[in-house]
Amino acid sequence: MFNLRRVLTIIKKEFIHIKRDRASLAIAIMMPLVMMLLFGYAVKVEVDHVPTAVWDENRSQQSRNLINAYKNSNYFDVNYYVKGRAEMLELLDMGNAKAALHIPPEFDRKIMRGETAQAEILIDGSDPTVARTVFSSGLMIAENFSRKISVTALLKKGASISPPPVDVRPRMIYNPTLRAEIFTIPGLIGLVMQNITIMLTAFALVRERERGTIEQLIVTPIKPAELIVGKLIPYIFIAFIDFAISLSLGVFLFKVPVKGSLMLLLLLAMVFIIVALSIGILISTIARTQLQAMQMTVLTIMPSIILSGFIFPLEAMPYMMRWASYIIPVTYFMRIMRGIVVKGVVFSALFHDTLILALMGFVLFALAIFRFRKKLE
């Protein structure tokens, strides 16, 4: 017969267990809070404030008016003024600029003669969502600017200008066809690699602790750093094999060619693998059970999917969420992947991202060793 008293006893016992397992309780409470904040603020597809470079060879009132037309919109932030095409392309290669406006020397004189003055806007097509916004809004701003000049000329001369006085021609680079796979596959490889490597190592020390074998290691002369390194190295090989498999599928199955150096890609992938494994080891030193390790892993993976730029462009996020993305290692590896695979850039364009990844790996690895030594004491 169903006994309510026994059920109440079990309920009381379970609440006591939950109270004692404070880590799991904290994660259970924090997870909906984190997910609501992430999805509420970061999940946006309306792109604005696109970082833009300007190469103004004309330097006239008309060219400044055109630049101001772009600056006064919510779509473009003119962050860079350059002096040549090479500098303009370098900013696009590095991802510092997503669009670049070039105004030729004869711009204002052609307008004065009633001819069509052409300008050019280069668009980084590696992110189709941003590229489509830049394409459509760039043309819209140019058409409005051209219409204003036509209206002014009509009022002055009593006749309309034909052809249109300004023609801004967009040119898509890196991914001119705007294939979604060109953008998603490199990012997906980075995300898959992070998730696999963190999950591989998040259970490493927890498993030893639950089985009781960690005590056997403690009584040996093995030092904490030696144990951590010994734990990591086998998983580095496994993760590298996983990376090779993922990259091969991307190239041969999804037809996403690697435009840059394959050796450079493999070398920088190794840096990222060490960073991700260090995160897993750090989780393993904090968690007491495999359940806690799994919960912490999920809590780590979720922000990476939302904030790294894998699905939603960083340019569409509020500034606070965008700054939060800079503490996520996979954000930098996605830039590296897309830089080498999509743009074919060289190491100098990726040095900043690589340096940050290397520093993250050093800090996380040192913190994992410190945490493990503290537990041994």
Précis, in short:
This protein has 377 residues and is of the alpha/beta class. Helix content is 68%, strand content 9%.
The SSE order reads HHEHEHEHEHEHHHHHHHHH
- Main-sheet strand order equals 2-1-3-4-5
State the end-to-end distance: 51 Å
Question: What is the molecular shape?
Answer: elongated
In percent, how much strand structure appears in the residues? Answer: 5-15%
Assign a percent range to the helix content.
55-70%
Q: Describe the main β-sheet briefly.
A: 5 strands, mixed
Global mean pLDDT = 84
**How many individual helices?**
15
Structural class: alpha/beta
CA gyration radius, whole angstroms: 27 Å
Number of domains: 2
Low-confidence stretches: none
Number of E strands? 5
Explain the layout of strands and helices.
Layout: H1 4-20, H2 22-42, E1 50-56, H3 61-71, E2 76-81, H4 85-94, E3 99-103, H5 107-112, E4 117-124, H6 128-157, E5 166-173, H7 180-202, H8 204-211, H9 213-218, H10 224-253, H11 262-286, H12 290-307, H13 319-325, H14 329-343, H15 347-376
Parallel strand pairs: 1-2, 1-3, 4-5
Antiparallel strand pairs: 3-4
Describe the structure.
- This protein has 377 residues and is of the alpha/beta class.
- The chain folds into two domains: 50-173, abc type-2 transporter like fold, CATH 3.40.1710.10; 179-376, no CATH class.
- Helix content is 68%, strand content 9%.
- It is built from 15 helices and five strands.
- It has helices at residues 4-20, 22-42, 61-71, 85-94, 107-112, 128-157, 180-202, 204-211, 213-218, 224-253, 262-286, 290-307, 319-325, 329-343, 347-376, and strands spanning 50-56, 76-81, 99-103, 117-124, 166-173.
- It has a five-stranded mixed β-sheet, with helices on both faces.
- Strand 4, helix 6 (128-157) and strand 5 form a beta-alpha-beta unit.
- Helix 2 packs parallel to helix 12 (290-307), helix 7 packs antiparallel against helix 12 (290-307) and helix 7 packs antiparallel against helix 14.
- The radius of gyration is 27 Å and the shape is elongated.
